[in-house]
Every structure is written in structure tokens, then in C-alpha cells.
Amino acid sequence: MTPLPPLGAPDAASGRPARPPEHVDAVVVGGGIGGLVAARTLTRRGLQVVLLEASDRVGGPVRGGAFGSPPVRLDLGAESFAARGTTVTDLAEELGLDVVSPAALSAWGYAAGRAFPLPKAGVLGIPSVPWAADVRRAIGWLGVARAALDRVLPRFVADTTDLGTLVRSRLGRRVADRLVAPVATGVHSAPLDRLDVAAVAPGLLDAFARTASLSRAVAELRAAAPAGSAVRGIDGGIHAVVEALTGEIAASAEEFADSPRTDATGPIHAAVRVGQQVDGVQRVGADWQVTTTVGDTVRAPRLVVTTPHVAPLLAPWVTAPGEAEPGTVPVPTPEAGADIWLATLLLDAPELDDAPRGSGMLVAPDAESAADAGVAGDSKGAAGVRAKALTHATAKWPWLADRVRRAAGPGVHVVRLSYGRIGTTTEPPSAEEAARDASALLGVDLTDRVRDHLLQRWDGSLPPPTPAYRAQVAAFSAAVGHTPGLAVTGGWVAGTGLAAIVAHAQAAVAAL
């Protein structure tokens, strides 16, 4: 999206002052999925909405792109959403998009120098049957013997401080390191001991309280889950959601009846504005007044903030429940998320037609050291693998395989590798390194098969859902709920994943 010129800044040539504040029904700060969904929800109520995004594009960690040839568009960020609930499916249908399921393939794990299919009956890698054959293949008989104790240990033998301590206390270290770590750290880009159980596995602690067994709790959650794959996608890519949302919000500005003022960019009520970093929030009577670094000022009785960077500006106006004066609620201070690089490879590799590692692989944090130690396994010399995950995109998504096949011919595949773990600066992978890692993980030599590649950075876009941070968010959100005309949403509040963010955004603005 091309950035709009500043709408309220003084004219550089004439020196004319910025025009007076604009008055609309709602201002949404932040153009990620949470902001876009919040803005659309408000516009569908007939409200005049302005969305302000600091960067030069909307969508946050949802983005599309294409190789030079063939020019098939694909996701360069989020590529699926959790199938729990119908929120995202309903939204996609309203936007005229087709929801699709991935191919019925297993995901694989890589840990302790070995590649193995991940157990099917699990939650975040936690198995529901500790002695199942696919669990035994991953953790061995010693691991099974320890994990089986979960069924007889008393309920109080459980440390629920975080996901890592919970799994180790009930099922042992091998389950934590070889099964849960590849999945949970791959999804949330943070160590197990930094993950809040309730945030990353909703309902798990309640199920454990009922069953007194972590594996039985997982079985209960699995039984209650809808049939089929745990994730869904969009025909054409998740980025189509961003494009459809943006188009619908932008179109709402054309219906503003009281917008006679225009400039070179068109009506001043243009609904989606990029390059607009918010640097001030004030209360003016019953309205919220928002100012940006380019000189714009917008007033509205409703304000929705979807980014943690603006949260400190709300602190003087937010009152905690039971408090008489505002300004006493601590603002959440999110830790920077992982510095992630995604390398997407277009490969001439007919050997991948049979999907030798299913839909992809999740790599345990210790895999590099294990591989360097020369542990025998199925990865055919995977020493020094730096990737934390691999998605065989053309195996996982039939819609993408069909488009690539029609555009580039048979035997051409798309593989995506993710690099970066929390707490470190990630060096961008070269196409050669990504091909070496893909070769090691897939068991196929791909080092001279790269037709094209794409590189995308996501720098700390989401904070790790630690218990301390989730407590801060809960307290701040409660205070926001007692502040008239104000709502907060987005991944920093709702947690990771499209399903969580969409549902939260819709609920957050429902009462505004």
C-alpha cells in the first residue's frame, strides 16, 4: 500500500497551518489484524472510522508476496489459523473468501538428532496416550516409563508456574524436550519456561483439575475439539484477509456524507492511513483526541488501541476498578519477541512430491547441539541446522501446489524455513544456508535446486506470553474496561494467533 501524504501537516510550499481537528465516530490506532477487524466491526455499525498505522503497510505479521517467476502469490507471514470456534471462518465467508483445510499429512519433529512424526493425539506436543507408538518412537521406552507415571501421580504433583515446569513435573523431561519444545517454542518463539499455560493452552489447567492427569486432560480437550485438522487456511493465502478487510474499511469512507473537505489525497476522511505514528492521546470533554507525528489531529468519542507502543499514552486516562483517580494502573511492558527471519524457497525437487516429512518439521531448541554432537538419526547429517521450523508449503496446502504446478510445471515445490529464538539477534539466512537446512531436515539434497527465494523479517512483533506479562495485561485490560469510550485489542492483549485476535477484537469494540 502506498503511504498517504500527511493529511494534517502544514503545507511545505505555502506554509499554511494544519487544518483543525477532524471529528469522526471512532479512531483505531494500529493496522494489524486486530486493528483491521476492530475498524471493520465499527464501520459495519454505520460509524465513521479512521485507522492510523505507523508503518507503510497494514496487516502486521500477515503479508503476501510472490517470486519473480512464477508470480504465484503466497504468505510471507502467518499462513494458517486455529480451527477452534468459527470466528475466523465466519469473517472469511463475510469477506467472500474460501476457507480450506490443509492436506491430511503428519507434522514431524526434530530433536536429539532424530526426525520423527509428531504424535497425532496431542495438544502443543503433550501426548494424550504416553505409551502410544508414535510417542514411544519420539521419546523411547525410558521416556514412556516416566511419562506413564502421570496416570498415577497424585494431583498435587504438578508445578503450574509455566508450561515447561508443568510438563516436566507430570510427564518428565523427555516429553518436554522432544515433543513439547519443538511445537510450543516453534509456535510462540519463546522457551517453555516463559510460556503461561492458560495463555498458550486454553482450558488445559481446568481439564487437569478435573482429571488429575495431564495426559487425560489433553485427551479431554482433544475429544471436545472439532473433527478434522486443528488449523485452516484461506484459498490464495491468509494475506487475502488483510486485503479484503482494508478494501472494505476504505470503501466505508466513500459513504461519509459530511466530508466536503479534500486535498491531494482525496477526502480527508480516508479511513485507512499509513505512515501515521501516534504521539499523543488526550481527553477533550467526552472525546478522545489523537495526534500524530506528521501533524494530524483526530477526535472521536471512541478510541481503540491495538499496539503496546501507544499504551503508555493511555496511562493518565485509565482508572483502575475501585480507584478514584486515573493514572495508577501500571502499563504492560512487553518483552521484545523473537527476531524472526522467514526464508521461502522455490525448489526444483521432484523428490519432494511424496512429502517425505509430511507438512513440515518443528525443531527442538537443543537440535543444533545434538546434531553437532553427532547423534544418529533420520536427518542424514543435520549438523548445524539453525532453522527452528520448516513448512513444506506445497505439500501442506493443495491450493498452493495447484497454482505452482500450473505456473511452473511438475516437481516444483515451495519450502519455508523459520529462523530466530527469543533473546538473540538473528542473522538473516542466505538462500544457500536455507537450502542446506532444508536438505538436512527433509533428507533430500536441495543445495543446487533453488530457483528463487524470498526473505522476510518479523522483528519482535509479538511478546512472549509469560505469566508475569499476562497478569499485567489482565490488570490493564480491566482498567480499560472501566474507562468510557476506550478499548484495547491486538496480539499484545489477545495472545498469539488469528483466531484469538479476531475474536478478541470483535468483542473489545462491541460495547463502544
Please tell me about this protein's structure.
- This protein is α/β, with parallel strands linked by helices.
- The protein is built from 17 helices and 25 strands.
- The strands form seven sheets. The protein has a seven-stranded mixed β-sheet, sandwiched between helices. A five-stranded parallel β-sheet has the order 15-3-2-19-25.
- The longest helix is centred in the N-terminal third of the chain and has 16 residues, at 133-148.
- Residues 1-17 and 367-382 have low confidence and may be disordered.
Question: Can you lay out the helices and strands and say which pair or pack?
Answer:
Elements: E1 22-23, E2 26-29, H1 33-43, E3 49-52, E4 64-66, E5 73-75, E6 81-82, H2 87-94, E7 99-100, E8 107-111, E9 114-117, E10 122-123, E11 126-127, H3 133-148, H4 163-171, H5 173-188, H6 197-200, H7 204-211, H8 214-224, E12 231-234, H9 239-252, E13 262-263, E14 266-267, E15 272-273, E16 278-284, E17 287-292, E18 297-300, E19 302-305, H10 311-314, E20 339-348, E21 360-363, H11 367-372, E22 389-392, H12 393-396, H13 398-408, E23 412-419, H14 431-442, E24 450-459, H15 467-481, E25 486-488, H16 491-494, H17 498-508
Parallel strand pairs: 1-18, 2-3, 2-19, 3-15, 8-21, 19-25
Antiparallel strand pairs: 4-5, 6-12, 7-12, 8-9, 10-11, 13-14, 16-17, 17-18, 20-23, 20-24, 21-22, 22-23
Helix pairs in contact: 1-9, 1-17, 3-5, 4-5, 7-8
Shape: globular
* Rg: 24 Å
Task: Give the tally of β-strands.
Answer: 25
List segments where confidence is low: pLDDT < 50 over at least 5 consecutive residues: 1-17, 367-382
Distance linking N and C termini:
29 Å
Numbering strands along the chain, what is their spatial order in the largest sheet?
A: 9-8-21-22-23-20-24
By secondary-structure content and strand pairing, the structural class works out as alpha/beta
Main sheet record: 7 strands, mixed
